[in-house]
Amino acid sequence: MADPRVTIVGATGAVGTVALEVLAQRGFPMSRLRLTASRRSVGRELAFAGENIPVEDTTPEVFDESDIAFISATDEISRDMAIAARERGCVTIDDSGVWRMDPEVPLVVPEINADDVDGHKGILSIPNCSTTPLAMVLDALRSEAGIERVVASTYQSVTGTGSAALVELEEQTRSVLEGGEAAAEQYPHQIAFNLLPHIGSLRENGYYSEEAKMLNETRKILHEPDLPVSTTCVRVPVRVSHSEAVHVAFDRPVGVARARELLAAYPGIVVVDDPANAAYPMPIDGADRDEVFVGRIREDTALENGLALWLVCDNLRKGAATNAVQIAEEIVKRGAWLR
Ligand code: A2P
User: Fold this and answer.
1) How do the domains of the chain map onto residue ranges?
2) What SS3 class is residue 194?
3) CA-CA distances (angstroms) from residue 302 to 155, 271, 307?
4) b/e string for 191-223 if b means 16 or more Cβ within 10 A?
């Protein structure tokens, strides 16, 4: 089989540009690479492996000559283009929330449920950038004891919103330091020198949609449809990397030492846990890395058989682009593309 022809839709965006880097770094086998974005970007070129590749308009015809497409643009583009790609024989790996909970769409973190790739019908999804590291940590620990409940609070960087939000954080920070106004467009309030307990749209039960995603997606990836999960998702003025305070109750004791062993042995997780020497994961250290970093592992003082821990994960890499490329690698390994 020839190497697949690959298209990145949203190639100029926060995740798309990282996807380009990840494809190059992992030496992903490709016979052709096409890059698309909005019409605004047509005429731009992006560098890949020493070549300049032109950015094209995002049209269905692009998929006539593509085998695998990564989509990270807008919800509307994900909705329309994943279908257009499938009709043209191209498999989509989608970064939006549009497809994730569709029963026909595998939602995959390869370390956890790579075999779900086999059932795909042309569209696969990567989880929300906060769900992926949480699900990996839970998967590592559930090999020792059943999980009874999960409570997590997130501290999510602005690049989870996109590149315009990073510009807004930087501009607001500069403006506030100079005594000026903090103009807010990407968020309902100032994000510089602040934080917002609000990610996504409000649901009837008082949770925002990001929190609902963490519940539903974690259950789907782990194949635990009744797992109780409650989260509070918070946007913080950090450039890259999401952090999470996680509290897990098990059906029997796990113990800190055993938890540390299980997490350290899990592919893609690194334990950084020496609090006496102020060593714990931080977003600035997790940025530009593919691993999920875990520390502050301790007995939970409020939950029976509970553990508390802290994790950090680059939301653009393992939280998005790296996970998507790993799924593509699974598709290639399994010969599971459509043509
Ligand atoms: P463009 O750079 O041309 O606006 P981010 O998540 O960083 O905001 O990036 C969003 C990505 O989605 C960018 O690559 C952006 O392209 C792309 N995009 C936004 N709107 C459209 C659209 N209507 N059609 C195709 N791509 C789009």
Assistant:
1) 5-127+320-333, 131-157+195-315
2) coil
3) 22, 23, 9
4) bbeeebebbeeeeeeebbebbbbbbbbbbbbbe
192's tokens: 């510089």
Evaluated on CA atoms 198, 98, 91, 43, the torsion sign reads negative
Cβ–ligand 1 contact at 189 (below 6 Å)? no
CATH architecture assignment, domain 5-127+320-333: 3-Layer(aba) Sandwich (3.40)
- For the Cβ of 8 lying below 6 angstroms from any atom of ligand 1, the answer is no
**CB-ligand 1 contact for 163 (6 Å cutoff):** yes
Q: What is the CA(271)–ligand 1 centre distance, in A?
A: 35
**Average pLDDT by consecutive 10-residue portion of the chain (339 residues)?**
94 98 97 98 96 98 97 98 97 98 98 96 98 99 98 98 98 98 97 98 98 98 98 98 99 98 98 98 98 98 98 98 98 86
- Residues with active-site annotation: 129, 242
Q: Are domains 5-127+320-333 and 131-157+195-315 of this chain identical in fold?
A: no
Supply the CATH classification number for the domain 131-157+195-315.
3.30.360.10
d(CA 293, CA 243) in angstroms, rounded, equals 9
**pTM score of the predicted model:** 0.98
